[in-house]
Design goal:
The complex is a heterotrimer of chains A (about 475), B (about 260) and C (about 425). By secondary structure, chain B is of the alpha/beta class. Chain B is built from ten helices and ten strands. Classes of the chains: A mainly alpha (about 475), B alpha/beta (about 260), C mainly alpha (about 425).
Chain lengths: ~475, ~260, ~425
């Protein structure tokens, strides 16, 4: 089952990108109407029919919405956001969210600055991004957040979120203004903040450990590609050292100050949806890269094993795999091992799932790296591993960033399937709310489903726009 | 347009060839958005005449010939081809396109059709010529461009020079009264340029009316009846090849020739 | 069927093992043969070929070790809960019944799964063509010169593409179909009750054969052949004289003429079948009857998949190089001819592979039926879990069914795609 989709997909993506960038001209309203709606008789008829259908649909939708009681959303807003998280510990999600926002703002600011500097040094047009353009890029998420918060019963969440937005902007500004030395290491600061954010929420529970390990791992992985560090053992220490050091420090800290927190069995709602997606992609990435390399390997054993795994996972619906996570996976554990939480099992399966899809994306990227690159690297005497690590993979991974964002969106949408195996994620809160005594049998499923749909939409839409933006920026696949 | 513009623009309306006018462009302007690509173009091409258009890149040469068969819409002035005025009337456009062949810089052969299908597509579907007859004509044309053995290959299997000769055969198959060449050799490797130029030379000798946008000065000197020099969207100078290459009048022409010769 | 698929799977696994081990053995023999034939060979542990083989053996051993460890855990656990590791349960009674299906609780597990699988096929066969039609229309609408149409098509794509298909399904099911339509006792019967809409079932009119129906069918077949004949004749006229063929119009005309003449000659061999609902509003009969979950699932997947197809259609047309359009224009081809001969054949080649992957996604997404209780493959299997049938084997069977569908679809896709590829150097 050789996949043949990538080159054609690329052609389509490039074509669409070019079309989207076509300039539009401004006309006075009268001429604009004539040109765009009533240029010919046929066109006028089409316009009127479409307009009529659109108006009827809009009126129907409006009447349907006005008719509905949104009390069910008001009563369950918290559940939609964080599921069953203990209500007397609400400071944790808030605090961890703030730290996360700070990390996000800081690193994005520093990154924007460094790409600005690069552009300036190469005499390319460069401009600092204004808050206005940020708002334009993320308008969907901001608008939907405001929409969500409008269901809150107090003004507190609104103030809290406004403060969070302010924090992102401020931290972004700070990241932009960081002195040069710190700037390069903003990644470290961001990662440390990320760790703190996790610890606030999950403490040093096994989950906290996992996330911590993940962050350290991704950090180290990023450092491996750095070329400004020396090669050899010293270089390896300098690359992996900071991440390892951070993990050790956190471990030592928790020995002195025991941090408590809540494992993901207690999490839920939109929070667990986003978390599962991030973890699924992060964990899936290294496995995906290995599978892609395996599939392209000359070694029969590696190739066969990779192909069978990838095609099996891709040939089967996710729901089948999720059913297997609850019913089949635990049977492979040693007899004296307790059954892990459902979500743990599901995340194992989701990781396997996303790694197979990521493998195909990475394979496409590897294919796109010209053969001459490998040959040139080999000719300069690099070892096979160095050729892959320093020459081929960086180019391939850069080329597949937009496709990876696409996979992130797909997985984000796919996590809704967790509701079927009984995990209280975003979509399932809708069902549990409709089963509450106050709302059962009132036919309010439409209201909660609509609410959920808008939530999914805001994130997926913003990300898909960002992915297209990245594609243009990276010049992926341009002819 | 202001009057002094008109006077700057050289007049290319002295017809050569048999003396009958095939293409008549009068006071033509072309804009791309706010950018004026062509300014007040006046040009006539006589039957059986070969006009070579030269000039620096971005001077509007290609735009000019693309306006003649309506690949671009001109904004002001008139274009008359073989007595038919080019307007928004679809029938006029199709009539003119039927009588006008075009050869592109990047060949633009249809990659999913064989050479024979490429050549017979338009005669069969536009001119309603029977299949056998269209194929016989196509084979004759392939003979003429010296690649008769390639008829059943796909464009992707041929060299650039061969592809461009197929493209010439394709436009000849419609039995056009005039052929427009848009830098036909610019995308070719040096060793293939000659085979295409030779084909074009043969065509000129057979009396085909041609407008060629090209950078091949040798071709211009040898084959052209008239050379038209364009710069900044205007026709700057017009003349016979001898006059043009030995005794250019305008500063811009001299500068251009000194850069490329 | 299931036993057959299991047999194929077993055979496949054996073949893979034989292939891998055999290739490895062959490589080893080759390695030593090469080394023996050359006297400048490197020492064994620095020989490039030997390193590769050693790595493969190491990986093979590692995989085998992991698998055997997992298998030992698995057998220990299944023994502990008393699960038998065989496929005999497929022949046991399944205790499953499916709406609108003759399956009885006494039928075997295997039969129940097969019926579920057929329902999966029913979703695909109806849904994919509908999604193609809707997607193509929307994709083309995005090229419209009409601003309103273009924007609405864009809005449609940008909205539905960015919400999970499961949400579309449950929304259509829970909000629109269950709550938006009346109970069947108060069913909505528009157009003089030729259509019946209720939150239990949709029913549409259909055609029904009468006395001479058998003969009429044969005549229709003959008409179809005649239509093909006429089309061939028109093509040859076109080839010989160059007159435009219009073969599709001629063919359709022939078919309609034959159908009409035969209809009157046989005195009306077919009639319409009007859907009916009994007085208590329970039992539907005649016409085409559609189960509500089936309709919800199929329409929702069509709505979702159409957005992706629309993007593919749009992108593939955009991907045809601009020069192709110009060349077609320069040759005076009409707009229709330009699309028919130049743009669409090339766009199709670009669109085909991603379309196949959308069809695969549609197939896989049909398993979401489980969320709204339409009994297709996945739902049957989960129902069987409830009947305490063995989960591990059932999941294997389920995976196998989808793998088969995926393999068939992508094999056909690759075959067609290979034929479509443009020849190049």
């Amino acid at each position: 089952m050789e996949s043949v989709t990538l080159p054609a997909d690329d052609a389509i993506a490039v074509a669409i990108n070019e079309a989207n960038q076509a300039p539009s001209q401004k006309l006075p309203p009268r001429e604009w109407l004539k040109k765009n709606l009533f240029s010919t008789t046929g066109n006028s008829i089409v316009s009127l029919i479409v307009l009529a259908i659109f108006l009827v649909a809009a009126i129907l939708a409006f009447r349907w919405i006005v008719d509905k009681d949104f009390a069910i959303v008001r009563a369950n807003l918290r559940s939609f956001m964080i599921g069953q998280f203990p209500r007397d510990e609400l400071w944790r999600p808030w605090a961890s969210g703030y730290v996360l926002m700070a990390a996000l703002g800081l690193t994005s600011g520093a990154l924007a600055r460094s790409s600005y500097e690069t552009a300036v040094s190469q005499d390319l047009p460069a401009e600092k991004e204004s808050v206005k353009s940020l708002v334009r890029r993320f308008w969907a998420i901001i608008a939907v957040t405001v929409f969500f918060v409008s269901f809150a019963r107090t003004a507190l969440p609104f103030i809290g979120l406004a403060a969070a937005f302010g924090l992102v902007v401020a931290m972004r500004e700070l990241g932009w203004r960081l002195p040069g030395v710190l700037q390069r290491d903003a990644g470290y600061i961001g990662a440390t903040l990320l760790v703190i954010s996790t610890l606030i929420l999950a403490g040093t529970s096994p989950l906290g450990g996992l996330v911590l390990g993940l962050i350290a791992f991704v950090w180290a992985l990023g450092e491996l590609g750095r070329r400004d560090l020396p090669a050899g053992a010293a270089g390896l220490v300098m690359r992996v050292g900071p991440a390892l050091g951070m993990a050790v420090v956190v471990y030592l800290v928790q020995l002195v100050i025991p941090l408590d927190g809540f494992g993901w069995e207690d999490w839920g709602g939109l929070h667990i949806t986003l978390f599962t997606t991030v973890v699924g992609i992060t964990l899936g990435l290294p496995f995906g890269i290995l599978l892609a390399l395996g599939r392209r390997s000359d070694l029969t054993v590696l190739k066969t094993a990779s192909v069978i795994f990838i095609e099996f996972v891709r040939g089967v619906p996710l729901i089948t795999l999720l059913l297997a996570s609850g019913l089949l996976l635990p049977l492979f554990l040693p007899v004296d091992f307790d059954r892990p939480a459902d979500l743990t099992l599901a995340i194992v399966v989701i990781t396997a799932f996303s790694s197979a899809y990521i493998a195909e994306i990475v394979r496409g990227g590897l294919q796109a790296v010209p053969k001459g690159q490998t040959e040139a690297a080999q000719a300069s005497g690099m070892s096979a591993a160095s050729v892959q690590r320093l020459i081929v993979l960086p180019q391939a991974l850069r080329a597949v960033i937009p496709a990876m964002v696409g996979q992130f969106i797909a997985l984000f949408k796919d996590t809704s399937l967790l509701s079927i195996i009984g995990i209280l994620e975003f979509l399932r809160v809708s069902d549990t709310s409709n089963a509450q005594p106050d709302f059962v049998g009132k036919g309010l499923a439409g209201v909660t489903y609509l609410f959920v749909a808008i939530g999914y939409w805001a994130f997926a839409y913003t990300l898909s726009k960002e992915s297209r933006r990245l594609e243009v920026k990276l010049g992926v696949g341009t002819r | 347009m202001s009057d002094d513009m008109t006077t700057i623009n050289a007049d290319a309306t002295q017809v050569g060839g048999t003396g009958d006018v095939m293409i008549d462009v009068t006071n033509m302007d072309k804009f791309f958005g706010d950018f004026q690509a062509l300014t007040n173009i006046n040009m006539k091409v006589g039957e059986q005449e070969v006009v070579v258009v030269i000039g620096p890149s971005g001077s509007g040469k290609s735009t000019l010939i693309r306006c003649i068969n309506r690949l671009e819409r001109h904004d002001r002035g008139s274009i008359v081809v073989d007595g038919v005025e080019l307007s928004d009337d679809i029938r006029a456009i199709q009539n003119i396109r039927r009588e006008t062949g075009m050869v592109f810089q990047s060949f633009n052969l249809f990659p999913h059709l064989t050479v024979l299908e490429n050549i017979t597509l338009a005669p069969r579907n536009v001119r309603n010529i029977p299949k056998a007859e269209a194929e016989a004509t196509a084979m004759e044309l392939l003979e003429r461009v010296k690649i008769p053995d390639q008829a059943h290959k796909f464009p992707g299997q041929m060299s650039g020079g061969q592809q461009q000769r197929v493209a010439i055969a394709r436009s000849l198959a419609m039995k056009p009264k005039v052929i427009l060449f848009d830098e036909p050799t610019s995308a070719l490797d040096p060793e293939m340029i000659k085979e295409v130029l030779d084909t074009m030379k043969d065509l000129a000798e057979e009396g085909m009316t041609m407008i060629c946008v090209t950078h091949e000065m040798g071709f211009a000197r040898e084959v052209a009846d008239r050379v038209v020099f364009m710069a900044d969207g205007e026709i700057v100078e017009v003349g016979t090849p001898e006059h043009f290459f030995t005794n250019p009048q305008e500063e811009r022409t001299k500068l251009f020739l000194s850069q490329i010769l | 069927m299931i036993q057959f698929l299991l047999g194929v799977l077993a055979l496949f696994l054996v073949l893979v093992v034989v292939y891998v081990v055999g290739k490895l053995a062959y490589d080893i023999v080759q390695l030593f043969r090469t080394r023996a034939s050359r006297d400048d060979s490197a020492v064994l542990w620095r020989d490039v070929g030997a390193i590769g083989i050693a790595a493969q053996i190491a990986v093979l051993i590692a995989i085998a070790a992991v698998l055997s460890y997992l298998w030992s855990n698995f057998t220990a656990r299944t023994e502990l809960i008393g699960l038998e590791l065989n496929f005999d349960f497929l022949d046991q009674p399944g205790n499953i019944s499916i709406a609108d299906n003759p399956l009885t609780p006494g039928d075997t597990v295997g039969a129940a799964i097969t019926e579920g699988f057929l329902n999966t096929i029913r979703i695909i066969l109806v849904g994919i063509p509908l999604a193609m039609i809707l997607g193509t229309l929307i994709g083309v609408a995005r090229f419209s010169s009409n601003w309103l149409l273009r924007k609405i098509a864009t809005g449609y794509v940008e909205f539905f593409r960015n919400i999970p298909p499961l949400v579309v399904i449950v929304f259509l099911w829970g909000a629109v179909f269950l709550n938006g339509f009346p109970r069947s006792q108060e069913a909505w019967k528009p157009l003089n009750s030729w259509f019946i809409f209720s939150n239990n079932r949709f029913a549409f009119p259909s055609l029904m054969g009468l006395d001479n129906f058998e003969l009429y069918r044969w005549l229709l077949l003959a008409g179809l052949l005649a239509a093909i004949g006429v089309a061939v004749w028109r093509t040859s006229v076109f080839n010989n004289t160059g007159t435009p063929h219009h073969r599709v119009l001629w063919g359709i005309g022939t078919l309609i003429a034959v159908a009409a003449i035969a209809y009157f000659a046989l005195g009306g061999p077919i009639t319409t079948s009007k859907p009916e609902l009994d007085d208590r509003g329970r039992v539907f009969s005649n016409g085409i009857r559609m189960q509500m979950p089936y309709a919800a699932l199929t329409f929702a997947l069509v709505i979702y998949t159409a957005t992706h197809i629309a993007e593919i259609v749009r992108g593939s047309i955009l991907a045809v190089h601009k020069g192709q359009e110009e060349a077609a224009n320069a040759l005076a081809l009409s707009t229709l001819q330009r699309y028919r001969f130049v743009i669409l054949p090339q766009a199709m080649r670009v669109a085909f592979p991603p379309l196949i992957s959308q069809f695969l996604n549609f197939t896989k997404n049909s398993s979401l039926a489980i969320a709204i209780g339409f009994t297709e493959s996945t739902s049957v299997v989960t129902n069987l879990f409830g009947q305490s049938q063995p989960a591990p084997q059932l999941i294997l069977v389920l995976a196998l069914l989808y793998l088969t569908l995926s393999l068939i679809l992508s094999a056909v896709g690759n075959l067609v795609n290979r034929r479509l590829q443009i020849v190049g150097r």
